Amino acid sequence: MVIFSDDFETDDFSKWTDVHTDGSGEAITQSTTKHHGTFAAKFTIIGGGCFALVNKVFASSYTELYARAYVRISALPTSGKSIVAIELCGTGWADAILALEFAYSGAPKWGVYYLKNGSYSTKFSGSISVDTWYCVEIYVKVSATAGQIRVWIDGVEDTNLGDITFDNNDKGDIQNLVFGGDYWIGDSYAVVLIGDCVVVDSAPIGPEAAGVTVKKGSNLSATMTEMLNSKMLFSIADRFPKLVPRRF
Length: 248
Known about the structure:
Layout: E1 2-6, E2 18-22, E3 26-30, E4 40-46, E5 51-62, E6 64-73, E7 83-89, E8 96-104, E9 108-116, E10 119-125, E11 134-141, E12 147-153, E13 156-157, E14 164-166, E15 174-182, E16 190-201, H1 219-229, H2 232-239
Antiparallel strand pairs: 1-16, 2-5, 3-4, 4-16, 5-15, 6-11, 6-16, 7-8, 7-15, 8-9, 9-10, 11-12, 12-13, 12-14
């Protein structure tokens, strides 16, 4: 069941509860760089201690959720710096339970910032590049004894970042989604994070079908996959050679 989604095609943040900026931070929607459709979100951070993000307060609280988005970043983090892309939170938007971030640990890497035993820990894995779209998906299950974290990058699960077990969770159940450039640590930098195609669901989401915004697992997505696996599109091209088959 889809809990929340926004592809920013309204060209604003009207679906979100709040927009948070500090210092020189800026959160806007724009049409220059996007993953799908016409518009995407743009979060600009200039200067240390600055942030720009949006958050969504859910109508209900949840003990487990999946959150997926497309993100790209304009500058790589260096030693001691990180910027959060997407996080699931407890009672307040700053009460992070799990945050996936562009981080630095010996080199630019993916990082998770997560709550365990009443305090925060971090893990790092993989690599990141500038001006590259990534499909990121996080899963959180909160429990006093057996909570869990899982992470997917471009549809592939990263078990170095996931498979983390909670011993407790003092931030309550999941009630907030945060998206954007949160807490880049450092004194001198300028970075832009672009985000698009945000979905929160009670079931796994996965990447979008190429070239169209369709939730993975939907009837339309399955139909398109069947078409691509058949000779349907090629027989159309053979019959009408002047027509170029649409790429799904």
